[in-house]
TrEMBL record:
<dbReference type="GO" id="GO:0045492">
    <property type="term" value="P:xylan biosynthetic process"/>
</dbReference>
<protein>
    <recommendedName>
        <fullName>Polysaccharide biosynthesis domain-containing protein</fullName>
    </recommendedName>
</protein>
<keyword id="KW-0812">Transmembrane</keyword>
<keyword id="KW-0472">Membrane</keyword>
<dbReference type="Pfam" id="PF21729">
    <property type="entry name" value="IRX15_IRX15L_GXM"/>
</dbReference>
<dbReference type="InterPro" id="IPR006514">
    <property type="entry name" value="IRX15/GXM/AGM"/>
</dbReference>
<keyword id="KW-1133">Transmembrane helix</keyword>
<dbReference type="GO" id="GO:0000139">
    <property type="term" value="C:Golgi membrane"/>
</dbReference>
Amino acid sequence: MKSIGSRDKLQAAAAATGPRRVLLLVFASCFAFATLLTFLYTSSGFASAASSGSRLGSSSSSNAAAGSGAALPLPVFDALVHYASFSNATHRMTDTDIRAISAILRARGPCNLLVFGLGAESPLWLALNHGGRTVYLDENEFYVKYLEPRHPGLEAYDVSYTTKVRDFRDLLEAARGSRAAECRPVQNLLFSECRLAINDLPNELYDVPWDVVLIDGPSGWNPNSPGRMPSIFTTAVLARSGATAAKGPTDVLVHDFNFEVEQVVSKEFLCDENRVAGSGTPSLAHYVIRSGGPADAFCAAGQDGRATSEEKTRRK
């Protein structure tokens, strides 16, 4: 009797738990179905958001790309030049020099513009070359650090010059003596051992196809100043080598051309046959440098900066 009673109790318990199992199974099925629907809805929402974000990002990128090459509207360009010309800033260029340089930037811009020297006009060149790239090189590390945060978008690097104005004729003779070797017209400046070559810039700058180069530095006011011999020589090589030569002619502007160093060194490396007549001012020379030419000479025969006997006589 005892065993029969126990069996009856087990059967009764099994009969009672049957409906509970069914209810539990139904509940689990409903929960799984709801979870699946939630997952599908959420995935769809993420995909839609990602697609929308991708479209917005793509639109923003294309707008940025479109704006990156947009030239400054001419009325704005002219207004900037006008007010810069009448500025009372100290140590600024003359009105005629500003307008002559601006005319070149209008013709070539937006472009890749390399400027030797920082000064009162630096923000102007950056603005006039809107949509292009403007890079400044200066001898004063502290001036570079001072100006960059005050002019957003200004890209500047300091350069360590080892030359002195007092040595410029000796440096010139040494360059002539190694014109077919270290100081040749076409070369990779990164590996140049020419004393006039600037080879410590960020590597990437040597691969930029420069359209316009403005030489307004380094300083050359006294015998111990670096002088512009390295910037003129380096520009002459850049214009004839690599990416700069490959993209076409380079406009080179030499400021303070009324000084001896600028005249003699420009004649040596930029060459009279490349000078554009009537496009500069007494203190600004304009050259257009093209690739090609002899491998061991910057200028055509008889057109370099060697002093003639008549000039030597005048110096005495």
